[in-house]
Amino acid sequence: MSVYIEKLTEEHNTIIRILEKVKSLGIRNKEGRVFLTKLKKCFTDHLKNEDENFYPVLYQYANSNSSKKEILNMFIKEMLEISDEVFAFFNNYEKETKYPNIEEDFEKIYVALMIRVRREEKILFKEYEKHALENSEVTKPLDFGDAIVDELLLEHAEILKVIKEITHNGIIIEDSKELFLKFKEVLLKHKNNENEKLIAVLNEASKGVFDLKTNFQEFIEEHDEFEEKIEEFFENLESETSEMDVLVEFGKIVADLTLHMNKEEKILYSEFKKLQRQKNYHFE
């Protein structure tokens, strides 16, 4: 990872820490509002950095690479839209002394920022580094696990996109039935794909076939427990549940899912790629 991308990633980590602090303290809490002010400053400074140094390079790369142009421009456009949403929230917050929907709107920017951070780090940062690599004399080492992991990361991005659509729709059950169905479908698709292509391999690895430093069995059990929570959420959704209960439970699922996917990416996916590189191991 380049020094510049490391700096942007650290800025992301700071934004997420402050975001989580506001969420835990409460948006109407005096201390929570102090951290909200810090959040605006950190996000503004980060955006200025990216607008001046990151996105111009990415635009140049996209426009010079026909195979990447459409998807990169699509992601860049979505990142800019998220920025507009976040600043719209801050403007409303600063103008209105009474803000009846502040909790709901904060939940929307919480999800939006999580989506922005994840997509930048897993897609745009990666493309930026590829562009930097292509314009240097360094030869990229062969990474056998990239194809499968990239596929799973795109599924994570798809899940987050549906979450954003549901959140923007106000999480009204009657109006969001199709979106909740879509949410269930993308989660099931990802679960099946991940279990078939990745979890099965790591399950085998955790039994001692490979000399691994981390015990994955415990993590995989945690993975299974989380899937049970997801199933329970959809079962409750189909029963007679109040809008407020759905809002609360959906918020919990989104928070847990975001942390879970982050843990998957940092531990499972990285270790899977290490396994792929072992000389005595071949994935078919």
Structure description:
With 284 residues, this protein is mainly alpha-helical. It has two domains: 1-140, Four Helix Bundle (Hemerythrin (Met), subunit A), CATH 1.20.120; 147-284. 83% of the residues lie in helices and 0% in strands. It is built from eight helices and no strands. Helix 4 runs antiparallel to helix 5 (146-168) and helix 5 (146-168) packs antiparallel against helix 8. The radius of gyration is 20 Å and the shape is globular. It starts with a helix and ends in a 7-residue tail after the last helix.
Nutshell version of this structure?
This protein has about 280 residues and is mostly helical. Helix content is about 85%, strand content about 0%.
Name the descriptors.
Four Helix Bundle (Hemerythrin (Met), subunit A); disordered C terminus; 83% helix; 284 residues
Mean pLDDT: 77
Distance between the termini: 29 Å
What CATH architecture label of the largest domain applies?
Answer: Up-down Bundle
Spans of at least 5 consecutive residues whose pLDDT stays below 50 are: 137-144, 279-284
Classify the helix fraction into a percent range.
Answer: over 70%
Structural class: mainly alpha
Overall 3D shape: globular
Strands, total number: 0
Radius of gyration: 20 Å
- CATH top level of the largest domain is Mainly Alpha
Beta-strand content bin = under 5%
SSE topology string: HHHHHHHH
